């Protein structure tokens, strides 16, 4: 008999007393109830977050605390009752483990009140909370009296612990393939959080827990594994920000059987495994979703294509299959090794082989490197654009104003950014300067953000989101509809076809700029309209030199503005393009990249601050996008940018958004800004669509300014086909096309934004207001001045006096 040194193991409970089948039935029912409460609660909480994101509502901060409270009350009460069972030690151990796991879930769920954009802060809080809970659980376990046992616990890296590490690496392997790491600090904190959660699992499923399910290996593996799987379910539910816990909910429960089999193998050799295998297996299993998944990308916004939600589902499915195979394999092989535990050498070889496999998969088919978010540092001083010369009417005057605006913006950036740029470069943080908004994008986590925010020249620091790369790009979006036989219905509804046939105006001489997902430059409806030259296309995401579009959104929107074959409002206009959306998401910096390019285009590889050509700026910009907080924007993030473009005489047309019919839903920049022409959507019957966002803007200003057809709009798609899409995205380019027709009919109006706006408002046609339109402050906050009328606007433009 050997006396243990150090912390004594938990006492071995006496065999359970015979109490009939009812305690077992009660335990089974309680376990099922815990799972039925936990899993739907987590899915519901995530869906609430996603619905709020899709409709543009504020994230419900109280949502997760409500889920936490409901779960603790509904699942914790029966678990606690089981823990107080008077007759059966096994039921009491089961109840204690389940009660502790549910309480831990309540604590970790509360951490989701931290906004997802501050992921490092969340991971740090999760690591600290899980470690504290583990410490409490260990201390509570030591209250029990020490006992003397005829066994020595397995060493720190004995065969069973090594097999647990091998199992954890096997579950981690799929994530090394489908996922990608965030920033250095984010990855470190994810590892610490996973380790702390593993320690918490080890504290709950230690030697005292497993001792209650002996002595036979079959009972230990089947019953103990099932009880452990239920205990791991609440722990998994609290493991990660909203969205990341969903894979963990699938992965962890089967590992309960693996842990039970490892304990059975250790018992055969008379060396109880204790909590070490639990800590290592659970920690490695959770490292996959915590480190290799960005919670902001596990989103319904990306679920339409083979984007991150698809690959997370693939990784989860493969990891689950691995977990099940491990449960079966370990259960069969280890439980049958009755004479001795597995050989340490073989276990070490298995662990080393799987570690090498994870490394190879991560480096070869995976995406090695760090892909953390960047920071956009907005400086206090912005360029003074007052007192610009009026110049002559038309493009010559516009070009002169654009050149002066560009000069002032660049001068301000060069004068105010120098010291900070040099400091950031010295810190190896890779700063990128911007001038349209006087700002710098740089690497850096929370510590760098706090330091930058404290500097006197800095107004605020935004998180500039960066998407993590995918294992494979989604298939290119395509359309299967044919080209229209004549003008599309929306083109006829606003009278653009009459402008062509009766007034002989098609938009020639005017250039439309598109910032979107890209443009299929080879599409037959768009190829001839490309302006060409070395400064008409820019792709800051992938650096493609020729116009291309994988998502299709940009091809469709530009087609509605300038497409041939009856789909575009101004088929004679030229176009230039820029990619500001990748996989349907952007960031403040990528939006600025494209807006800067529109003010002063530059050649491939050029420096926007020195090589810009404001004389080559397009005349009107169509922008079917918005920058919500989830992408890093605050309400004023792009305000200096649209002000500068307006001062340069470039008309910015922007989509109102698709978060109607809620009042005040025009909120994401740039749609609410006063100098932006904001566009809502109507259907064939001239009724404002339900999805079209409503005003007023946050500053109380009436928005939108106009509406245009935005339901079932036929336009171009990559690959030469066509498709119908809905949204204010579809309506916006049609208004930009009408402006192109107006300025083509009267070139003296180019750059005269005030007169152009007035004509559009004065010639707009009434629409059918939806029921309850007055609840948003009146019709002007639902449909603005009304439906854009191309024919009336062009006729008015021809006779307009300018000056």
TrEMBL record:
Gene3D superfamilies: Peptidase S8/S53 domain. Keywords: Hydrolase, Membrane, Protease, Serine protease, Transmembrane, Transmembrane helix. Pfam families: Peptidase_S8. Residues 507-767 form the Peptidase S8/S53 domain. Belongs to the peptidase S8 family. InterPro entries: Peptidase_S8/S53_dom, Peptidase_S8/S53_dom_sf, Peptidase_S8/S53_subtilisin, Peptidase_S8_Ser-AS, Peptidase_S8_subtilisin-rel. GO terms for biological process: proteolysis. The active site is at 516 (charge relay system), 553 (charge relay system), 729 (charge relay system). This is S8 family serine peptidase. The chain crosses the membrane at residues 21-43, 63-85, 121-140, 160-177, 189-213, 220-240, 310-333, 345-364. It comes from Micromonospora tulbaghiae.
């Amino acid at each position: 008999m050997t006396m243990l040194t150090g912390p004594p193991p938990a006492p071995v409970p006496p065999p359970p007393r015979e109490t009939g089948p009812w305690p077992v039935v009660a335990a089974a029912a309680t376990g099922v109830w815990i799972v039925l409460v936990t899993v739907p609660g987590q899915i519901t909480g995530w869906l609430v977050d996603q619905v709020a994101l899709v409709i543009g509502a504020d994230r419900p901060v109280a949502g997760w605390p409500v889920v936490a409270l409901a779960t603790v009350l509904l699942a914790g009460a029966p678990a606690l009752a089981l823990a107080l069972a008077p007759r059966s030690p096994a039921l009491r151990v089961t109840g204690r483990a389940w009660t502790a796991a549910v309480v831990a879930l309540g604590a970790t769920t509360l951490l989701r009140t931290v906004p997802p954009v501050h992921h490092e802060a969340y991971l740090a809080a999760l690591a600290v909370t899980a470690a504290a809970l583990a410490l409490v659980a260990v201390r509570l376990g030591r209250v029990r009296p020490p006992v003397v046992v005829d066994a020595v616990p397995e060493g720190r890296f004995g065969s069973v612990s090594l097999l647990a590490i091998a199992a954890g690496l096997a579950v981690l392997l799929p994530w090394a393939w489908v996922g990608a790491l965030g920033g250095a600090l984010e990855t470190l904190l994810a590892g610490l959080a996973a380790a702390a959660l593993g320690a918490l699992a080890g504290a709950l499923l230690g030697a005292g827990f497993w001792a209650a399910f002996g002595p036979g290996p079959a009972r230990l593996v089947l019953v103990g594994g099932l009880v452990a799987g239920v205990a791991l379910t609440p722990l998994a539910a609290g493991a990660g920000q909203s969205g990341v816990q969903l894979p963990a909910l699938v992965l962890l429960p089967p590992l309960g059987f693996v842990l039970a089999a490892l304990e059975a193998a250790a018992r055969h050799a008379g060396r109880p495994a204790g909590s070490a295998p639990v800590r290592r297996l659970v920690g490695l299993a959770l490292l996959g979703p915590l480190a290799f998944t960005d919670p902001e990308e596990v989103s319904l916004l990306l679920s339409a294509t083979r984007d991150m939600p698809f690959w997370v589902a693939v990784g989860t499915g493969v990891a689950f299959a691995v977990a099940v195979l491990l449960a079966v394999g370990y259960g069969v092989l280890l439980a049958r090794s009755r004479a001795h535990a597995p050989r340490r050498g073989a276990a070490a070889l298995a662990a080393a082989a799987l570690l090498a496999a994870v490394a190879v998969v991560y480096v070869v088919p995976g995406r090695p490197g760090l892909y953390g978010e960047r920071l956009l540092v907005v400086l206090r001083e912005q360029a003074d654009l007052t007192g610009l010369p009026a110049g002559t009417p038309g493009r010559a005057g516009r070009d002169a104003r654009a050149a002066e605006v560009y000069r002032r913006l660049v001068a301000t950036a060069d004068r105010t950014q120098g010291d900070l740029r040099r400091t950031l470069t010295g810190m190896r943080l890779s700063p990128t300067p911007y001038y349209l908004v006087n700002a710098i994008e740089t690497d850096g986590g929370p510590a760098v953000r706090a330091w930058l925010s404290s500097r006197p020249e800095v107004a605020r620091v935004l998180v500039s989101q960066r998407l993590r790369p995918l294992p494979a790009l989604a298939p290119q979006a395509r359309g299967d509809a044919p080209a229209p036989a004549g003008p599309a219905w929306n083109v006829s509804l606003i009278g653009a076809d009459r402008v062509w046939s009766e007034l002989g105006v098609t938009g020639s001489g005017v250039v439309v700029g598109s910032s979107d997902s890209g443009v299929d430059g080879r599409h037959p409806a768009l190829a001839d309209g490309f302006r060409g030259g070395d400064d008409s296309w820019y792709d800051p995401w992938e650096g493609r030199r020729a116009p291309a579009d994988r998502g299709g959104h940009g091809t469709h929107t530009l087609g509605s503005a300038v497409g041939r074959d009856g789909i575009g409002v101004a088929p004679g206009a030229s176009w230039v393009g820029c990619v500001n959306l990748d996989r349907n998401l952007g960031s403040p910096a990528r939006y600025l990249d494209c807006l800067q390019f529109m003010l002063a285009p530059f050649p491939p590889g050029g420096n926007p601050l020195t090589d810009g050509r404001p004389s080559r700026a397009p005349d009107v910009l169509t922008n079917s996008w918005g920058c919500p907080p989830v992408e890093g924007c605050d309400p004023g993030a792009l305000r200096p940018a649209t002000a500068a473009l307006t001062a340069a005489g470039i008309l910015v047309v922007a989509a109102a958004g698709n978060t109607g019919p809620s009042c005040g839903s025009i909120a994401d920049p740039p749609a609410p800004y006063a100098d932006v022409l904001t566009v809502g959507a109507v259907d064939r019957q001239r009724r404002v669509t339900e999805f079209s966002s409503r005003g007023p803007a946050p500053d109380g200003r009436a928005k939108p300014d106009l509406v245009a057809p935005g339901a079932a709009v036929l336009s171009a798609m990559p690959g030469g086909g066509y498709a119908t899409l809905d949204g204010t995205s579809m309506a916006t380019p049609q208004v930009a096309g009408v402006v192109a027709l107006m300025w083509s009919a009267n070139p003296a109006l180019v750059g005269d934004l005030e007169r152009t706006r007035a004509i559009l408002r004065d010639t707009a046609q009434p629409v059918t207001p939806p029921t309850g339109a007055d609840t948003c402050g009146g019709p002007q906050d639902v449909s603005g001045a009304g439906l854009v009328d191309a024919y009336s606007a062009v006729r008015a433009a021809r006779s307009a006096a300018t000056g």
